Amino acid sequence: MANNEFEQRRQTVTAGLAEHKLDGLLVSFGPNLRYLSGFTGSNALLLLTASRSILFTDPRYTIQAGQESTCQAHISKGPLTVDLVAAIMRWRLRRVGYEPAMMSVDAFQSLEAKIPAKTALVPIKGWIEELRTVKSPSEIARIRRSVETNSQAFEQGVARVKPGMKEQDLAAELEYRMRRLGAEKPSFETIVAGGERSALPHAQPTAARFENGQLIVVDMGALREGYCSDMTRMLFLGAPGTKVKRTYKAVLEAQLAGIDAVRAGAHSAAVDAAARKVLRGYGLDKAFVHSTGHGLGLEIHEPPRLGKRDKSRLKAGMAITIEPGVYLEGFGGIRIEDTVLVTEKGCEILTPTSKELRVI
Amino acid sequence: MANNEFEQRRQTVTAGLAEHKLDGLLVSFGPNLRYLSGFTGSNALLLLTASRSILFTDPRYTIQAGQESTCQAHISKGPLTVDLVAAIMRWRLRRVGYEPAMMSVDAFQSLEAKIPAKTALVPIKGWIEELRTVKSPSEIARIRRSVETNSQAFEQGVARVKPGMKEQDLAAELEYRMRRLGAEKPSFETIVAGGERSALPHAQPTAARFENGQLIVVDMGALREGYCSDMTRMLFLGAPGTKVKRTYKAVLEAQLAGIDAVRAGAHSAAVDAAARKVLRGYGLDKAFVHSTGHGLGLEIHEPPRLGKRDKSRLKAGMAITIEPGVYLEGFGGIRIEDTVLVTEKGCEILTPTSKELRVI
After folding, report:
1. Which residues pair with A219 in a beta bridge?
2. Using an 8 Å Cβ cutoff, are B139 and B5 in contact?
3. Between chain A and chain B, how many beta carbons pairs sit less than 8 Å apart?
4. Are A167 and A206 spatial neighbours (Cβ–Cβ below 8 Å)?
5. pLDDT reading at A98 higher than 80
6. In sequence order, which residues have a C-beta less than 8 Å from that of residue A79 and are 6 or more positions away?
């Protein structure tokens, strides 16, 4: 990402400080901090004011901060907040925004105890997350590469599936493949679950072995150049019966209906409703126990959420998942998920992988 | 882990409620919640009172909660806090502890707004973390298996190292091997860094290829049955020169001095001082930019910390790392790390891997 993209982002924030009645914004949440500075270390604070940006981190990251941070970095020998508060005082900041959803009660109280009485800490919710929802061309390019890497790894891994293979060995294979293809790591813990365990929406792979007659859910994503992808596909070992075929058809229709409802300006809840309505037609809506999708980018789950009660509207440039699923205890679960890019007139499905049930 | 081990843990907590002047304790931090209930899902709250324990989670985890939770599970259709507050009111709890270091300002304020005026939320810091520092025999058995898996994966991966291999391909290989050996996943992002990049204490593997004459740092851990391991070893491609040999010797002596200082009753800071003193003798103490070690268990970093300013004393049954390192910009970094178990008279080094510099 070009340095001036980070500068532009910081300028967007500093230009918005007055509107939020702030003299400065303290950014402590890792993905927001990376978005605004480029720094990826685990311990850092970023202070933005109209005229200055400064990143505080510790001596473990001296070299890394020099390489990654696109704004001035300060290495603190003790707690970062000591130097942060010194800067707040030196620059006479009176109203400093902070991220209440991402700062612990403890960290907040320790900061509050140090800052001068004249300075107010002002909770700012979701501002940077909102900026992050609409991806720039360079971010979209990274998400595309992440999605493609992920789909290639899926094909390489699935080619090895056969009865007797362990869930955890397929997960290991998929993650190994994505890394060999250039991903930094999986964007979340790969889900591989066979048979009845596929009914766990967040199943962790176990030592259970695949058997003939089993549904297998594979939910996987790559992290590439810092950006996430997310895809779910279903495999079947042997010849699928009527219930599997009918349920698969229902979920696929629901997923296509969800995708069809995506466009700039659409309500997130309307996309969810479109998918849910199809499942209701099959009497399966009660088995759809989560929301239809979520944004992704630097994080695997970021705004917007596409659930029943979500009030947001989609914007062109958002990268989101569409992933209805049904979960039937004692039978199994079926979920189909793509990563899509919202456009003015609809969406572009980024995930290139076929949505046919993979019969093995 | 036997169900009654979880019950015993909860009894230890409920027996301590009176001492903390509490009617109940709200546990929201994942590892603490797992430690006390067995549940591993991502969205849950655990409420403990003298007479009852109840786990709140959402419908995605209905089946998993039934399988994993060793106490009563309640599936909430909306926000978990609504049902939590209903229980607090029904049971007339007046003083409920919460974890201020692990709860966001936002989550706290939303909870505070819902609970009745008669109920006080009382910050409780590090209580469960403190209980977790001393491992039970079944936890030690798991840590042993995690350490052994990790060391086996290291040997399998290192056997493939040669000039031209990419850092990220070695990391992928190591993680693949540990999973094939039965680990759930790495306990943290595997660090593989060659040449000057080894001077980054928290280096992420890149596409850089190993070259002759390079130091390579490998810092890796497995997660097995929920428990972590952590080990750092150094490789050298070709024939190491005087500076590498001398620096390696200094770090190894420092690591052995640290290990030698470990015993039940020793101050954490004294272990750190023992390692640091050796490096001072070599004029390398300023290049040792982090603390000497940390506890590990369900988390890769948990109390105690073994740094300059840490006041805690070691206890028999603690699992800790001893990992001094020196980082010289433009030259590289050398760190040697074992996982050890604190005993009454000293410690048992769990890590079976040789600490010789691996010359390849």
Report:
1. A191, A232
2. no
3. 110
4. yes
5. yes
6. none
B172 contact residues in A (CB cutoff 8 A): 175-176, 179-180
H helices of chain A, in order, are 3-16, 30-37, 62-68, 80-90, 105-114, 127-133, 137-158, 167-180, 242-261, 268-281
If asked whether residues A164 and A292 sit together in one domain, one would say yes
Task: Name the pTM for this structure.
Answer: 0.90
Whether residue B147 is found in the same domain as residue B267: yes
Average pLDDT score over residue span A95-111: 95
Domain of B296 in residue numbering reads as 134-359
Q: Identify the pLDDT of residue A202.
A: 79
Domain count, chain A: 2
With 0-12 / 13-18 / 19 or more C-beta atoms within 10 angstroms meaning exposed / middle / buried, residue A280 is middle
C-alpha span between A254 and A259 (Å, rounded): 9
Verify that A170 and A50 share a domain, yes or no.
Answer: no
**Residue A314 distance to chain B (closest CA, Å):** 24
Q: Does position B2 have pLDDT exceeding 80, yes or no?
A: no
Query: Same domain for A72 and A106?
Result: yes
CB contact under 8 A, A62 and B171: no
Same domain for A179 and A102 = no
Token duo for residue B279: 């490096």
Instruction: Please choose, from the candidates A25, A30, A147, A134, the residue with its C-alpha nearest in 3D space to the C-alpha of residue A84.
Output: A25
Q: Is A354 exposed, middle or buried (0-12, 13-18, 19+ CB in 10 A)?
A: exposed
Interface mutation vs chain B, best among A160, A165, A179, A196, most B CBs within 10 Å: A179
Q: Which of B109, B176, B202 sits opposite A172 (nearest CB)?
A: B176
How far apart are the C-alpha atoms of A276 and A92, rounded to whole Å? 53
Cβ neighbourhood burial of A171 (10 Å; 0-12, 13-18, 19+): buried
| B104 vs A40, A102, A189: nearest CB | A102
User: pLDDT digits over A110-140, tens only?
Assistant: 999 999 999 999 999 999 999 999 999 999 9
Is a pLDDT exceeding 90 seen at residue A203?
Answer: no
| A111-122 burial code (b ≥16 CB/10 A, e <16) | beebbeeebebb
In this structure, the answer to whether residues B200 and B343 fall within a common structural domain is yes
Using CB atoms, pick whichever of B41, B105, B172 lies closest to residue A202: B41
Q: Give the domain CATH number at B39.
A: 3.40.350.10
Tracing tokens 């955890």 back to the chain, one arrives at A168
Residues of chain A with Cβ-Cβ distance to B201 below 8 Å are 60-61
Same domain as B346, residue B205: yes
Q: Report the residue of B32, B102, B104 to disrupt the A interface, i.e. the one with the largest count of A CBs within 10 Å.
A: B104
Nearest to B101 among A59, A106, A172 (CB): A106
A199 contacts B180? CB cut-off 8 A: no
Compute the average pLDDT of residues A16-43.
Answer: 96
User: Of A78, A99, A132, which residue constitutes the final position of a domain?
Assistant: A132
- Facing residue for A105 by CB, picked from B108, B207, B289: B108
Which of B43, B63, B168 has the most A C-beta neighbours within 10 Å, making it the best mutation to test the interface with A?
B63
Peptide bond into A304 cis (omega under 30): yes
Instruction: State pLDDT tens for residues B139-179.
Output: 999 999 999 999 999 999 999 999 999 999 999 999 999 99
A169–B172 C-beta distance less than 8 A: no
B104 and A109 within 8 Å at the Cβ level: the answer is: no
Here the CATH number for the domain that contains residue B234 is 3.90.230.10
As a whole number of Å, the CA-based R_g of chain A is 23
Residue B36: in which H helix or E strand, if any?
Answer: helix B30-37
The pLDDT of residue A63: 87
State how far the Cα of A336 lies from the Cα of B286, in Å rounded to an integer.
54
A184, B207: Cβ pair inside 8 Å?
no
CA dist B102 and B96 (Å) reads 15
Q: What is the pLDDT of residues B192-225, one digit of tens each?
A: 999 999 998 878 899 999 999 999 999 999 999 9
